[in-house]
Design goal:
single chain; mainly alpha; 69% helix
Length: 296
């Protein structure tokens, strides 16, 4: 099938992505089709009715195709609710950036997804604080939550790597895991110096070992006003925050991802005192109108 590259065979290959023995070969064959099947891969990746095991194989296929169109499909699905699939999408974009540095990523989309990930991480501290158990606890629930939070942190740093490709953020991430106080302090100082002020103010308290779980939970209560379990809830959490930068990210996401149900949030943002938020909301409303015009 991979050698023949007949488009009519693509559905059969997609159906076998979740097959334990044939999945890897099916993915390899699909990669041989190149850019011609990116539309089919987009549909498969975004279809929540399909087996998640099959959808999780799509990012690697898009990396093997390695075109700007393939990268765009990955960008469109960065707010995927399944955390494993979301991690694979982010990792796929990291690989694409290394293999094809000429392919440009939408920095505003990356900032929006990064803001959502940071809010999700703050929410985890709210939950951890309510459990009343320390981070190092051997309680099964606390341990599982802590492992999940480590994965959240890795996704945050992978997104930072996409936003700042010329900075050695991997070393900073490793430095923050170090037990050596000097190495840890240097990594934290590095981030403090290179990140934008709005991003730094939100992220550094999550990384600074001197900030307690309780303090992070209290900060989360100020930032997070909604559950974060899927794409729409992530955007609601952003746009309902008290922070103007987070709200701007949320407004941008409403337009970029075409979330018509949240158009009312954009109307409220248009009357905000923050000029960036007003302008972002105006552009997002125009984007929704454009999408509505294309719907037929």
């Amino acid at each position: 099938m991979g050698k023949l590259r007949k488009r009519r065979l693509v559905p059969d290959l997609l159906d076998r992505l979740a097959h334990r023995e044939l999945g890897a070969e099916a993915a390899k064959a699909l990669g041989n089709f190149g850019d011609t099947i990116v539309g089919a891969l987009r549909d498969h990746l975004g279809d929540c009715s399909l087996p998640i095991a099959a959808r999780r194989e799509i990012p690697a296929i898009l990396v093997s195709i390695g075109t700007p169109t393939a990268a765009q499909v990955l960008m469109e699905n960065l707010l995927e609710s399944d955390t494993t699939l979301r991690f694979r999408i982010i990792s796929a974009l990291n690989k694409l950036r290394r293999l094809h540095p000429e392919i440009e990523a939408d920095s505003q989309v990356l900032e929006t997804v990064l803001a959502a990930e940071i809010l999700g991480h703050y929410r985890s501290y709210q939950i951890l604080d309510k459990l009343g158990t320390p981070e190092a606890s051997q309680d099964p629930v606390a341990r599982a939550l802590t492992e999940s939070m480590q994965q959240e942190l890795e996704r945050i740093f992978r997104l930072l790597g996409l936003l700042y490709p010329h900075l050695d953020l991997h070393s900073a991430y490793m430095g923050l895991q170090s037990k050596n106080v000097s190495v840890y302090d240097n990594a934290l100082e590095f981030l403090d110096n290179v990140l934008k002020s709005q991003l730094r103010e939100m992220l550094v308290p999550l990384l600074d070992g001197k900030v307690t779980v309780g303090e992070r939970a209290r900060l989360a209560s100020r930032l997070v006003h909604a559950k974060i379990e899927n794409q729409e809830q992530a955007v609601v959490a952003l746009v309902s925050s008290d922070d103007p930068w987070l709200r701007s990210c949320g407004a941008y996401a409403i337009g970029t991802f075409g979330i018509k149900s949240l158009e009312g949030e954009l109307t409220r943002c248009l009357n905000d005192s923050d000029p960036l938020l007003r302008e972002t909301a105006r552009a997002a409303k125009q984007r929704l109108e454009q999408l509505a015009g294309k719907a037929p």
